[in-house]
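Sample intake sheet
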Amino acid sequence: MKLCIVTHNVIKGDGQGRVNLEVAQEAIRYGHHVTLLASSVAPELQQSSQVNWISIPVKGWPTEFLRDLIFSWRSAAWLRKHHCEFDLVKVNGAITKAQGDVNAVHFVHSAWLRFSSKNDMRLAGNGLQPRRDLYSIYQWLYTLLNAHREKKAFHQAKVLVSVSEKIKQELVDVGVPEAHIRVISNGVDLEEFSPGYADRSQWSLPAKVTLALFAGDIRIPRKNLDTVLHALVEVPGLHLAVAGITEGSPYLQLAASLELSERVHFLGERYDIPEIMKAVDFLVFPSRYEPFGLVVIEAMASGLPVITTATTGAADLVTPACGIILANSEDKSALVQALTTLKNNPESRSQMGQAARAIAEQHSWNKMAQSYVDLFEELSKRFKSDTKTSS
């Protein structure tokens, strides 16, 4: 099979990029030839005789939106000339103006737009003012334009792959027939994220306390750190490590105003999350809106119990044996109860961590990639059969 994958990056350290890296590697193992329309590609793929990299350079353009547009135009121009050379073309969201056979959907911008419009009152209730700076205006415009572009992309594809049941429902809500959607959850590196021990002192974290972890973009309200901080006030003795860019974040000031400075430890942007997960007791991630949430399955693979919300796609993988799912991301009382339960029960945490690891082992990157390649082979045979029938 000749497969074309259109994506910005095919590398580790990038959520969508990692998915495409694993899919490309699995396709190669199956003996297929892969063409990558991408701006950056992992060295191990560049060295493969089964891979053809068509570089789509966008470096130097000043904003992500402009880089996306340039990528979309350039990739579409190339595909218009070469689409007929492939058995199947896989795209991601609204990444290109050209039609894809399979569209892997990691985020539905129109759904987030509807959700975010309801957020301002929530923020005011939690002691935060909605951002009105250039960054927030840019993010709103970026989301609005992507919501417009992605609807066309979704309806062009023959099959859409959703990373969670949550995303599947959002696709149905924007008019995609349910029969056209397959759900393939994202995977996790079971070696990189594994149970173990790490000395907290390397991050200046306190040793003899129960320590939760929050990881995500703390410059925006979507990840819901504000509710976590307000809940933490009512759980004395519990400490919180926060991994995320602190520049431009309102949460350092909020933590100080709630007199939590001694119990909340802002670590800044981190690239050693697998090691940090070995040093904490559980993950708290009650995101207001999360298409999947790799950090959830990464924590599970690390043997950590998790607290998350029904609005997080990865909640599909969380059972009562390994974590706590909050029905409402704004329910501070329920979050207080969940935090208290995990703080006060170290034996339960240990049992839940073992159950979490067992579930994560069923969702390796390899198994995810196999599901994609199996789908590609199924569709390729169907497309060829349809072509013969029509001729």
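Comment: The first helix runs from residue 15 to 29. The longest strand covers residues 33-38.
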